[in-house]
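Consider the tokenized backbone below.
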């Protein structure tokens, strides 16, 4: 008799891209990463790294700052300019401890740096932290997409730091230049919300929902009918979790159902609903559901 029991999901195996023109360092890091359970992509130059990225998107990058041709700083900028790669954390490896090089690495989009000669335990610990955090952030963004909204984060310089797949589609269609999308979001941040024509009688709404991390600002994006852009939800700063709760409420789920789906207690769901009702200016579940349905939640 065949075994029809469900198969356990495969464990998450992170992929790391290592870029260094020193073959000895590349070999040392590759061996250490393999021993830690990573899948390793290796490149000895920026051009090779870009080729690897066309094949697979890694969960983290260990990047030599100083290389012949395109250096690590320029490569990092290229990664962050591509929406498909922008979410990947980059840890710089450099023998240059001067402050200007450290600042240059962060300005290029790096999240951390380690000094050569490398101390492998430190490299592994820093990398593991950034890979874990980036994965959690990506899962949160994708979960937000499921609820009907996209997510965007602007950095301290009002550049797009990362965005969810749905947000990438909308902004890519309406703003061919990334700088224009960032400028629109920065303007929306000043007023709390903004809208942009999206064709077919629709508007793309952006709602600033607060700061995340260090000097980063998060926005929720959603498509609504132009006639509904001035309804309460269009200008209400619901958190991503409140948006999820409201979405399931609009689908007719009870507090207990929502608690089971989102992995929280019914009491916590009730507290979220209290905040949602207050922000929307309504008193009943039915009224909140009507507003949510108008916005496609």
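A designed sequence for it:
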């Amino acid at each position: 008799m065949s075994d029809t029991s469900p198969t356990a999901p495969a464990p998450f195996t992170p992929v790391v891209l290592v870029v260094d023109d020193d073959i000895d360092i590349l070999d040392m890091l590759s061996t250490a990463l393999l021993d830690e359970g990573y899948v390793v992509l290796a490149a000895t130059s920026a051009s090779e790294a870009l080729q690897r990225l066309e094949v697979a998107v890694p969960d983290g990058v260990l990047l030599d700052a100083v290389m012949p041709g395109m250096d690590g700083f320029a490569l990092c900028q290229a990664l962050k300019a591509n929406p498909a790669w922008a979410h990947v954390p980059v840890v710089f490896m450099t023998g240059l401890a001067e402050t200007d090089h450290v600042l240059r690495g962060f300005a290029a989009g790096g999240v951390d740096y380690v000094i050569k000669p490398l101390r492998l335990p430190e490299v592994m610990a820093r990398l593991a932290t950034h890979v874990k955090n980036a994965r959690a952030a990506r899962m949160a963004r994708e979960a937000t997409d499921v609820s009907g909204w996209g997510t965007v984060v602007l950095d301290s310089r009002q550049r797009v730091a990362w965005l969810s797949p749905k947000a990438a589609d909308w902004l890519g269609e309406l703003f061919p230049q990334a700088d224009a999308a960032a400028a629109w979001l920065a303007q929306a941040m000043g007023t709390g919300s903004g809208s942009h024509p999206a064709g077919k009688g629709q508007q793309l709404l952006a709602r600033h929902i607060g700061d995340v991390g260090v000097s980063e600002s998060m926005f929720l994006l959603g498509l609504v009918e132009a006639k509904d852009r001035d309804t309460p939800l269009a200008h209400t700063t619901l958190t991503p979790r409140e948006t999820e709760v409201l979405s399931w409420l609009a689908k007719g789920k009870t507090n207990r159902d929502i608690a089971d789906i989102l992995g929280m207690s019914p009491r916590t769901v009730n507290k979220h609903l209290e905040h949602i009702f207050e922000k929307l200016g309504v008193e009943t579940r039915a009224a909140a559901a009507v507003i949510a349905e108008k916005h496609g939640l």
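Residues 147-294 form a domain with the Arc Repressor Mutant, subunit A fold (CATH 1.10.10.10).
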